Amino acid sequence: MTATAPMYPSVAPVEPPALLLDGIAKTYRSKAGAVDALRGVTYHFARGSFTAVMGPSGSGKSTLLQCAAGLDQPSSGAVVLNGVNLNGLSEVELTKLRRAEMGFVFQAYNLLPSLTVYDNVALPLRLTGKRPARNDVHGVLNQVGLEGKAKRRPSELSGGQQQRVAIARALITRPSVFFADEPTGALDSGTSRQVLALLRDATDRAGQTVVMVTHDPVAAAYAERVLFLSDGLLAGHLDRANPAQIAAAMSDLEK
Ligand SMILES: Nc1ncnc2c1ncn2[C@@H]1O[C@H](COP(=O)(O)OP(=O)(O)OP(=O)(O)O)[C@@H](O)[C@H]1O
C-alpha cells in the first residue's frame, strides 16, 4: 500500500477538484465522552474518478461520507464541492446544492413504497421544481435495464432491481458526484456486478465522480483507487488493485 500524502494540489489545477476535503476532523460528543471519528483528512477527488473508501469498523468511513455529502458538519476543516465551500451555505442552500449536484446510493434503497418506479425516479426533479420529461425518466430506466418496470411498485421488484431504481433516481439529475455507502451490501454477487458496472459507467461515460464506502474488496476493485482509513486518518491507498491485493491491505490494517 502507498502512503497517502495529503493530496492538496501544490500547483493550482486547471479546474477545481469535484470534491475537496481540507483537513476535516469530526468529534462526536456524548455523555459517554468524546470520540474523534476523523482526525484531519485532506484529499481531493478528481472529476470523473471512482474512489472506494475502506477501513476497519469504526475507522470513520461513514463519517467521512456524511461530512463530504454535507449531511453532517465536520468539527473543523472544510468540504468544497465544485469550488463551493459547504461551510458557508445555509441549510436551504445546502439542500439545493445536494439536490442539484449530488446523487446518493445507500445499502437501504430508500425508495418510496407507495410510488411507482417511474415516480420514484422522477421525484428528485419534482423536488427541484422541474417537470420531469418522460424521455429522461425512461432514458435512465433504460440505462439501468429496467425499462419495462416503470409502472411497478418497489415491493414488486427484487433487491437488485430496487437498487437499480435507486441508481436511476440518482442519475436523473445528472449529479456531478455520487456518494455510495455499501451500495451492494444487500445484493448477491451477480446483481452487485451490475450495480457496480453502472457506477463505473457513470465515471467512464459521463465524467461523474463516485465516492463509495465498502467493506467488499471485490466491489472496491471497480474503483481506480482505494483509500484506506484507519482510526480517523488516511492510512494509504492502492491504485488499480485486484480484490486479493485489497483484501491483503485490509487485513494488514486490521492487525
Ligand atoms: N453519532 C455518533 N455519536 C457518537 N459516536 C459516533 C457517532 N457516529 C459514529 N461514532 C463513532 O465514530 C467512530 C467512527 O464511526 P463511523 O461510523 O464513521 O465508522 P465506519 O468506519 O463507518 O464503521 P463501520 O465500518 O462499522 O460502519 C466510531 O468510533 C463510532 O463509534
What report would you give on this structure?
The protein is an alpha/beta fold and about 260 residues long. It has one domain: Rossmann fold. It contains 8 helices and 10 strands. It has helices spanning about 60-70, 90-100, 115-125, 135-145, 160-170, 190-205, 215-220, 245-255; strands at about 20-30, 35-45, 50-55, 75-80, 85, 100-105, 175-180, 210-215, 225-230, 235-240. The strands form 2 sheets. The protein has a 6-stranded mixed sheet with strand order 6-7-8-3-9-10, with helices on both faces. It has a 4-stranded antiparallel sheet with strand order 2-1-4-5, covered by helices on one side. Helix 4 packs across helix 5 (about 160-170) and helix 5 (about 160-170) packs parallel to helix 6. It is globular and about 50 Å long. It starts with 18 loop residues before the first strand and ends with a helix. The model has no long low-confidence stretch (mean pLDDT about 90). The structure holds adenosine-5'-triphosphate. This is Putative ABC transport system ATP-binding protein. It comes from Kribbella solani. Keywords: ATP-binding, Nucleotide-binding, Transport.
